[in-house]
Amino acid sequence: MATCLCNHPQDTDEIQHILEVARDWALTNGMVFKPDASSAGQSQAQCAPFSLFPSVVPKQIFQQAVTCMKDFNTLMYRVAQDHDFLERALKSVIKVDPFVRGLWDIYNQVREEGMAQPISLDLFRNDFMMNTSDKKNITSAGIPPSSALQLRQIEFNTIAASFGGLIGAATHLHRYTLDLAGKPYTSSEMPDNDPARGFAAGMVKAWELYGNPDAVILFLVSGIESNIIDQRWLEFKVHQQNSKIRVIRGTLLDVHAKGSLSDDKKFILDKSEVAVVYLRTGYGEDSYTSDKEWSARLMMERSRAVKCPTVRSQLSGCKKVQQELARSGAVEGFVEDPKAVKSIRDTFAGLYSLDMGTEGDDAVKLAISSPEKYVLKPQREGGGHNIYGEEMKKLLEEMGSTKEREKFILMERIFPLPEKNYLIKSGIPLTLVDTVSEMGIYGVHIGDGDKEHLNNQCGHMLRTKMEGTDEGGIVVGFAVLDTPYIVDV
């Protein structure tokens, strides 16, 4: 049985009316993608995919995710500072994964010559799902009791954590569609949500700490960018908080062609001194098609500009680090407070190393014997990379006892309870379908050695997809933007 916010309207004309109004609202309020003309043949804005109504999230689960975020911010910042831990965690991956090795080489070079900027800015998103252990005791609304749900971390995003801008608009959109459907809600059930404002506050603070009022913030972006409006939301929020800050945009190739370092390692791009570099690209091998992009990344990393993220923070977001942190005693090496340790560990799913040796061999056997219970994850961001089921089984059998398997980790598969909703995206008919959701919690952190300048939780989002869809990326077409309707069960 699927959970349901309420008895969704079944009348086709009523739903069609709500859909038409919702699409116009989304276009009017900047909840859109803007395809690049060279790639899509057009340049007009299009609605980002969204759910017609918000999806149910039990209050206890939502509060657990929100409450643990500041502890995760501290943990991941400290992980990025610990060279020995990163080296132990990634030593096997570096040998077999050229992309991670490229990042590691930059990190090592900068570490050996001395980091010019000790301050780092991190704009995080921690992704969770609700695992259902008991589908028998379901309430009349289709919602399981809290005791039957477990919050489980899917991944921790340390670079290019997206949709902080669009999701703020989605909250207002869903309040509107609930109003149109005649469904009441309270402010606690549909809370305010503006992650872009929190992210912008982090950028403004980092810019202030840099100490040059004439310096700019650089948004590092890809050459072809459909999600530019989400990025613009952050730019506009920066302007709202400090109208004197100038934001510029550029690619890795722009940095290579027009960027330079001064003798004291100031980063100059097209005659502007850069105070903060915010990376919305550079998280996958597709961003580095030649030595020029790698050279540009190294230049920025060697500079005095505040990086978001630093290359070491990006490395800390590798799935292999997530798996190593799940080992007994690992979190405790970074976090002293037992309550904070518990809040972090309570979200961990089963994570297994595939490194060469008995431990990795046992994990391979586990996955091959029960492929429906596990997922194979490479060290990649951006969606569309995970491997499931029989495809995973076949790949593991082909890799066998070769080092190729060390590119991956094995993770326990999560089984969330389905929920009814309408998903509005190209190619999907307007019908009430079973969906599942992934919840992201946004965090902002600024650190300088042992000092924390800023540590906040600053918003949330849902990514919702049809039940049975393995991947969850929105830009790549698997999921839609969604918001939580928070209920007390």
Structure characterization notes:
With 489 residues, the chain is an alpha+beta fold. Helices cover 37% and strands 24% of the residues. It has 2 domains: 12-349 and 414-487, no CATH class; 350-413, Glutathione synthase lid domain (Dna Ligase, domain 1), CATH 3.30.1490. The chain has helices at 12-28, 37-40, 59-67, 69-81, 83-96, 98-113, 166-181, 195-210, 228-241, 252-258, 291-302, 311-316, 319-325, 338-345, 358-369, 389-399, and strands at 32-33, 46-47, 50-51, 55-58, 119-132, 149-157, 216-220, 247-250, 259-261, 267-269, 272-279, 306-308, 351-353, 374-378, 387-388, 408-412, 419-421, 423-424, 433-448, 451-466, 480-482, 484-487. Strands 5, 6, 17, 19, 20 and 21 form a 6-stranded antiparallel sheet that branches. A hairpin with a 2-residue loop joins strand 19 (433-448) and strand 20 (451-466). Helix 10 packs across helix 11 (291-302). Residues 137-141 have low confidence and may be disordered.
In short:
Belongs to the eukaryotic GSH synthase family. By secondary structure, the protein is of the alpha+beta class. It has helices spanning 12-28, 37-40, 59-67, 69-81, 83-96, 98-113, 166-181, 195-210, 228-241, 252-258, 291-302, 311-316, 319-325, 338-345, 358-369, 389-399; strands at 32-33, 46-47, 50-51, 55-58, 119-132, 149-157, 216-220, 247-250, 259-261, 267-269, 272-279, 306-308, 351-353, 374-378, 387-388, 408-412, 419-421, 423-424, 433-448, 451-466, 480-482, 484-487.
The share of residues in helices is: 25-40%
Give the domain tally: 2
Could you tell me the mean pLDDT? 92
Largest sheet: 6 strands, antiparallel
Shape: globular
Assembly category: single chain
Summing up helix and strand content along with how strands pair, one would put the structural category as alpha+beta
Mind telling me the C-alpha Rg?
22 Å
Number of helices: 16
Low-confidence stretches: 137-141
Q: How large a portion of the residues is in β-strands, by DSSP E?
A: 15-25%
Q: Quick one: how many beta strands?
A: 22
Distance between the termini: 17 Å
Keywords: ATP-binding, Glutathione biosynthesis, Ligase, Magnesium, Metal-binding, Nucleotide-binding
Enzyme class: ligase
Protein name: Glutathione synthetase
Cofactor: Mg(2+)
